[in-house]
TrEMBL record:
Protein name listed in UniProt: Helix-turn-helix domain-containing protein
PROSITE patterns, A to Z: HTH_ARAC_FAMILY_1, HTH_ARAC_FAMILY_2
Coiled coil: none
Keywords assigned: DNA-binding, Membrane, Transcription, Transcription regulation, Transmembrane, Transmembrane helix
Length: 334
């Protein structure tokens, strides 16, 4: 039982480090990862309570610790998403990831009495499948983004071993595997702590990437060429890591180029090109029959609000007002 208690304490400590932003790097991603380790600690504490007499002393402890079971996998995935794509914006679709967790709260609240026989097994298998599926999805995100820091991959491998031990425990007698599994959890929790803290070693490189004036000017020219010739901004899903991949440079080098070399953030820079593209389309005779929202989408915006806001900010007019001006000038014989 000692290993289980030590692991539980380690998970809660790691969660505190991440949630309190003690690392001061990848803030959003670290908070999602902090939630994952917090929920993992809850899950282990629930197992400890079931194995010991704690559940007799505190009958509500296990249900309270189980509430977040189906939220563990989604928060792990979202943390990897923000590590690999730090510029991504929160979206209402994130809520969809937590629908199973919301439904599970209903089960814990007493609705389980209304479920058919065998539903408990379905819940357990669903939890295991969810953990495995989201972990694999997280690895695919890392591979797709070509994240250049190995610590995240090793962190995910440590988490993956913990998940694998949990999955395989179903096929081993509980009493015989408990101590061994707890020991493996402790090793993985310590490994995870090591790789989380290892973020500190890359902070200096991120703040001051090795871009001298010559390299900075070369990347400026390369970026301008990519934007003009390939028009990547017309892809509404374009993000910092995607553009960096097209330029074959790191995310942090591109971020430094934009922030220091051009004194703009990613979305300011991209939206300038999108607005120019929209102006071009609004003035085109071939696009006069196309509605304004469709033009916004063609220029790379993903919503009417984003299109109108960015367009007015940069031109002083809404897209509708701009089109009316163009039509009036054409009528007057521009």
């Amino acid at each position: 039982m000692l290993f289980a208690y030590l692991t539980c304490g380690c998970l809660f400590l790691l969660s505190f480090i991440l949630l309190s932003n003690a690392i001061n790097l990848y803030k959003i991603a670290n908070r999602w990862m902090g939630l994952f380790f917090l929920f993992a600690g809850f899950a282990l504490l629930s197992a400890i309570a079931e194995k010991s007499t704690l559940h007799l002393q505190y009958p509500l402890l296990i249900p309270a610790m189980e509430i977040t079971r189906f939220a563990m996998a989604p928060v792990l995935y979202l943390s990897v998403l923000y590590y690999t794509r730090p510029d991504v914006k929160a979206d209402w679709k994130f809520i969809l990831h937590f629908i199973p967790a919301i439904l599970f709260i209903g089960v814990l609240a007493g609705l389980s009495h209304y479920l058919p026989p065998g539903a408990g097994l379905v819940v357990v298998l669903s939890l295991k499948a969810q953990l495995a599926g989201y972990w694999i999805a997280g690895l695919l995100l890392i591979r797709k983004s070509q994240f250049r820091h190995s610590w995240l991959l090793f962190l995910m491998l440590a988490v993956g071993i913990m998940i694998a031990v949990y999955l395989l425990a179903s096929f081993v007698k509980w009493d015989s595997s408990w101590h061994f599994n707890s020991f493996l959890y402790l090793l993985c929790a310590n490994a995870a702590t090591y790789y989380v803290i290892k973020q500190r070693h890359i902070q200096h490189n991120i703040a001051t990437p090795r871009l001298n004036t010559v390299a900075l000017n070369r990347y400026k020219a390369q970026l301008e060429k990519v934007m003009r010739e390939d028009e990547p901004y017309t892809d509404s899903d374009l993000n910092l890591s995607g553009l960096a991949m097209q330029m074959n440079i790191s995310v942090h080098e591109l971020s430094y180029l934009l922030n220091t070399g051009l004194e703009k953030n990613f979305y300011q820079y991209i939206n300038e090109f999108r607005v120019e593209k929209a102006k071009e389309l609004l003035q085109s005779e071939k696009h006069q029959h196309i509605n304004i929202l469709a033009i916004g989408f063609e220029a790379g915006f993903n919503s009417k609000t984003a299109f109108n806001t960015s367009f007015k900010k940069l031109t002083g007019k809404t897209p509708v007002e701009f089109r009316k001006t163009v039509v009036r000038l054409d009528t007057e014989g521009r």
